[in-house]
Amino acid sequence: MPDGGSAWRRQGLEVAVAEQEESVIWLRPEHAPVGRPAERSRAEITAAAVELADREGLEAVSMRRVAAILGTGAASLYRYVATRDDLLDLMADSTGSEYDLPAPSGDWQADLLVIARQARQIMRRHRWLPAMVIGRPALGPHGVDVLEHVLDVLADHPAGPARKLEAFAILSGLTALFVQNEMAAADTATRHAAYLRHVAAAGDHPRITALLAASPPDGNPGDQFDAVLARTLTGVLG
Amino acid sequence: MPDGGSAWRRQGLEVAVAEQEESVIWLRPEHAPVGRPAERSRAEITAAAVELADREGLEAVSMRRVAAILGTGAASLYRYVATRDDLLDLMADSTGSEYDLPAPSGDWQADLLVIARQARQIMRRHRWLPAMVIGRPALGPHGVDVLEHVLDVLADHPAGPARKLEAFAILSGLTALFVQNEMAAADTATRHAAYLRHVAAAGDHPRITALLAASPPDGNPGDQFDAVLARTLTGVLG
DNA sequence: CCAGTTCGCAAACATCGTTCGCGAACATCG
DNA sequence: CGATGTTCGCGAACGATGTTTGCGAACTGG
């Protein structure tokens, strides 16, 4: 049988292995137990992709460029990853290793804020992360560790499982939203401002006109992150 | 001068026009005042793109496919739009016409909830919208109308302009997050569940194991949208 | 040593966004 | 009415993308 695509996985070395869904990369063994050994690893490829994304953005992460960084051919990457989206999932989950997860203190609200603040820092380090957290939530080994920790923090909380999962999703999503907004402040805001000035000059939309007139002398609103997130969490939890 | 790209715009018919930023599509006149008349309009192209996205998703919206729907060549679209992202901006803003904006009632919290609920419905109608609202917030003519209305609702509110703008961004973003989550419930959740079952079976992560065991008999948490959004808005505003 | 299997990867395919160049179409003006 | 100036429509091409195919090379268990 020529190649044929991972036939060894079906040979029943472990019964549980045969039952696995192949649609999720975390359940696919990284290396085959027989045959020519691989020269690289998922971690190595992921690290290269993350570094490239940090430097030039997500859209610069093409199979060819990642392969070039590693000094291989583009097609070789498909021995480690079924598709580009798999690589993106690996990238997103790998950032989960940057969390420091201290033991729960008893104050779940404070503990969740600690996590959220770390998430914010991590997303600032990897400016492509917010878009992935929002648009393609991946739950790999590291993400599972974070989820376990959140559930540990909420262990004594009376809310049901579904609500706790929702709280986790909102914590991640809202943090990503915040970071995305503060990143777009320098870029998108300028483009919007040009059009908003035009709208203000046109005469309709008096509220926008007034807002733009009073905008410069307005003190900056400070960092609303903690306050908004705390309120939102008490909204979904008790 | 052969074509050369919209030279008439520089001829100073209107002084204000010459000052315009060309980087924003809303400030670029749709049709040239001289020369051969265009056979189509931005609105027509936008409508075709929206219909295609509603049917087959955002990634199906390619210049070639949109052009094919209209019975033209792909290159022709660039007479109406400078880039594909411009077309996406047009699509996003066009959904702003689906709002019904009643006069402010005096209760700003209730009025904002009315807007948010409409946003939710609109995003459910156009399943590609949440990703755009979050990743590429476009503020066109219709978006400006909605913003004007929100500012009108908040006219008597003591918060500063920056905070009101932040409230608007959070209102849109959080709504998009919610819709994205409820859409992913059927798709992503299934993929996650397979891996989560594996994690639970592995033995570590006892909280996740317990959560999965108690998951089926747990009553669904009802619709948290109104509650979470209200709490968050009072978090950023007074 | 050989049979079995996987690995690395050049080449090819389909598709994408975008640009170029030019004939055709239209409004204006002489 | 015809010439002129300008834009429009668009076939063809360019470069880049994700992915597949096919095969020689590399390794291992028997």
3D structure, described in words:
With 238 residues, chain A is mainly α. Helix content of chain A is 58%, strand content 0%. The first copy, chain A, is built from 10 helices and no strands. In chain A, helix 2 crosses helix 3 (63-70) and helix 8 packs across helix 10. Mean pLDDT of chain A is 88; it is low at 1-21. At the A-B interface, helix 6, helix 7, helix 8, helix 9 and helix 10 of A face helix 6, helix 7, helix 8, helix 9 and helix 10 of B. The structure holds a DNA duplex (30 and 30 nucleotides).
For the largest beta-sheet of chain A, the strand count, sense and barrel status come to: none
User: What assembly state would you assign to the polypeptide chains in this entry?
Assistant: homodimer
Helix content of chain A: 55-70%
Average pLDDT level of chain A:
88
Q: Which descriptor suits the 3D outline of chain A?
A: flat
Largest Cβ-defined interface = A-B, 65 and 65 residues
- What is the count of helical runs of chain A? 10
